[in-house]
Every structure is written in C-alpha cells, then in structure tokens.
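Cont'd.
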Amino acid sequence: MNIIPAGILLHIPDGFLNVLVSAVCWLLTLIILGIAVANTRRDLDERLVPLAGVMAAFIFAAQMLNFPVAGGTSGHFIGAALAFIVLGPWLGLLAMTAVIAVQALVFQDGGLLVMGANILVMGVVPGFLAWFVYRLGQGRGARAQTLLAGTAAWLSVVVAALVVALLLAFSGTSSLGVVMPAMLGVHALIGLGEALITVAALSFIRRARPSLLEEERSVGAGGWVVAGLSIALLLVLFAPFASGHPDGLEWVAESAGFLSTAQDAPYSILPDYTVPFLGETGLSTIAAGLLGALLVAGLVFLAARSLRRRSLV
Amino acid sequence: MNANAFDRYLERASAVHRLDPRVKVIVTLAFIVAVALLPDGTWAAYGAAALLIAATTAAARLSPGLVLRRSLLGLPFLLAAVTVLFTVPGRALWEGPWGLVVTDGGLVRFSSITLRSLLSLGAAVLLTATTRFPDVLHALRHLRVPAVLVAIIAFMYRYLFVLVDEAQRLLRARAARSARLPDARGGGSLAWRAAVVGHMAGQLFVRSLDRSERVYHAMQARGYRGELLTLAPHVMRRRDWLALMIGGMAIATVTLVGRIA
C-alpha cells in the first residue's frame, strides 16, 4: 500500500531549487515559524506539544484517505486548508510543518535543503490564504460559508502549485511559460477534490462538535499580518508577469546566457546559479520584491517582539 | 495490518548504524548543500559524490539496489524540469515534434539536475535507513533546532502509525459496506464519493482531537511539565569524530573536483 499520497508534485525534492532560492525560503519560513511558536506557546502552554503533534499525525493519516475518480486514478486529500481552518493559523502551521518534516526525514518525500521552500509552499502560503478566505464567511449564511470554505480549499491547492512553478522558474529548473499552465491545470482539478472533501469534513465536524468551529480563536494581529504578507508575497511574485515584460521562456534564456558570459559573478560561491540582481530581467524585480518582503517580515517580527516585551512589563 | 511496517529504518550491524546521529545528520546536510552547489556538467564531481554514496551503502551493509530504488522517488518531479531541454540555448541535437529542439546546453542542464537530485536523495535515504528517527530528532535537538518543534515532530512520529491504523480502519469499513461487482462501476456520483471521504476525514479529526486530549491528561498524570526528557545520552566518541572528519574531507574533495573540472 502506498503511504505517499497525492501532491507529490508539490513536494519539491533536493536538486530542483538552487541554493539562493532555498536559503531565502528558509529565512522566510523560520521567521514565520518563530512567530507561530511564540503565539501558540502563549495560548496553550504545555498543552501545545501533544495537541500539535497528534494533529500533525492526523493530517498525515488523512492524506491516506482516497476515493476512486476514473481510469484507476484516485483523489486524495492534502489538508492544509482544513488544518488552518479548524486549528487556527498558528497551530495549523506548526502541524503542517511537522508533517512536512516527517515526510522529508522519514519518507524522503520532499528534500532537506528545500524543506524551507516546502513549508512555504504547502504550509504558509496556502494555509494563510485559505484561512483568510474562510474567515470572510464568518457571520454570513450557511451557503456563503460553505462556498467560501470550498473556495479556500481549492485556492490552497492551486496557489501551492503556482508557488512551486515560480520557485522552479527562479532556480532555472523549468520554464515558467510551460510549467505554470501545466501545474495550474492539473491542480485546478485536484483542488476540486480538495474542496469537496474539505467542505464535507467541515460539515461533519460542525454536526459532531459544533463548539470547535464556533469558538472565536484569538489569533492576534500577527495572524492578519502574516495573511496579508503571504498575499503581498504572491503579488510581488506576480509583479513582473503582470507588467507584461519578460515571459518565462525569455527569462530562462536570458539567465542561461548570463551564465555563459558572466564568469566573474560577484558571488563566486554560486558559480552555477546566476545571482540575478543585475540586468532588467523579471527576476531582478522579483528579487527586489522578495528582499522588500523579507525586510517587512523582519520588521514585523522585531515589532512583535518589542510589543510583547512591553506588555510583560 | 500494522502500519509500523512503513518505517524506513533498516536494522543492520554496521559501523554506520552505530555512529552518533549528530555526525550522520551533519554529514548528510553538508553533502546535500555541496551537491546543490556543484555547477552543471561537472561529471567527475557527480561521479565522486556517487562513489561516496556507494561506499557508505556498502559500509552500512545495505543493498545498492534498495538505496537506488528509494532514491528514484523524486523522479516524477523531473517532469517539471523537462522544459530546460528545449529552452537553454545551445547547439541543436535533435528536432522533436512541434518545432521543439533539444540543445546540448539543455541536455547538460537536465542531466545535471537529475543527477544532483538523485545524489541528494541517496544521502537522505542512507540517513533514514541507518538512523532511528528518535535518534535523528535527538540530534536535531543537540543542533539547536527549537525544542518545541522537535517535541511536536517527535509526538507526530509517535502517533503517526496509530492514526494511520485508524485511517486504514476507516478505509476498510468503507470497503466492507460498499460491495461492488468486478466489472461494474462504483456507486454514487464523484461528488458523493468525495463527500464520503470528507466525512471520514472529519471523523478522523474528531477522534484524533479526543486522543490528543487523553494523551495530554495521561502525560499530566505522569508529571509532564512541557519538556520531554530522554534517557539516551549521546556522547561523541573517537570514531564519531573520525567519521565526521572523513565525511568532511570526502565532501571537500567532491567540491574540489567540481571546481577543477
């Protein structure tokens, strides 16, 4: 029996992202994880570890549930949206992180150097987005809530695929013009299954344990900040494509051309990987945007820390 | 069926198995970073790295076929990299359909991505096969990974197989109540089938939450204060330092070969 479920195209193995992209992803992930640990520890104390651990095991086990679709293929459940919606974003993120760590360390499903990227792809970005979309439905009618929950789950899968395609393109591993439409097409379908399952799971939980979903979870301003930040990050990643400047094929060609001509790159530690802050490629826009997002994240982190200190005094 | 059978650790009486987990984790990570930094087309360096994997496999008394088979797991992902065959500029090698042209530069890049990915996966497979997971976690703790995260991962691993069993019971129950003739179509619409799985996921969630509550109370009754204690002290012995040195030198050699070639 196959314990490694669907979404294998979302688990990036080592070797597909270059060191620069992996490092930037690790940095972003670590900052957000730091906020998550601080927030959840404050709310849950010593209850955190058993709750997050068993919930992570739940997500892993739930990924084994499948249903026949057609022609021998089957639909699976990925679970980021459900985890964030039911557990709240911080606990949901910790659970997803544990899932991704175990998948990489025990089952070699996803790499180690790129684990930061994988947490970003399958935890942070889809989770916060799904949570944000789901929260829009609070206080509305049952039908609107269901619709938004389904949309949240569908978006979580599609956005994860989108970010994978972008990261691969940044690393020069694939051309965006081909891989992004393919990834989006496949995952738009997978996302439908995810939406159906998530909505049904939520309706089951609402009937069996209504208190779990009604309870207002205290998230703090940090939750909204990270939700906003992941949306901002997406916009930043999209910026060069929206401007209509370079398309993916052009970009890869250009970076490859740079590779063959510029031997005296400023970062000789990355001889293979063009460090893309030069030139008027889309990548320089993205790199600038990423650095900006990084700075904002750092500032938010510092601000959150200093605020917490002050509130203690 | 007991889900413990999925565990990827392979018991062997070998020097690699007996090494301190910290050494193995550090060497594995260093190897993966070194491989990721190798430039395209440095075949000699890839060969040296492969030799390192093969030597470690032999020292760990694992079968090379098994390590290779498990390393092939990342292969589906290569689909995403196929495009570089056509997009990297270079001399045309082969003209495919739809005006696609495979270039020599593209072929070098594609093969390099494939090999680097296989080598990194090989290292990770070796780490998993020769080190018990609790030892890996203990090593991570020593290497300053935040205690809360390590504890959560340890807990997840502890209950992983319990909940996988639970999920399999749910699947078996569904199979038992959905009889189907061999060549007949499954019942219900696609949406209905997805909803059934959704209810199973909800059921599993509620059961897991209850279980975490019971686990928490049981731990409290045993004096849990938010910190996991362990009885296994990890001490670096002489052979551990030696292995760390040899591993470091081997990785440096691989990097050096990559720079010279």
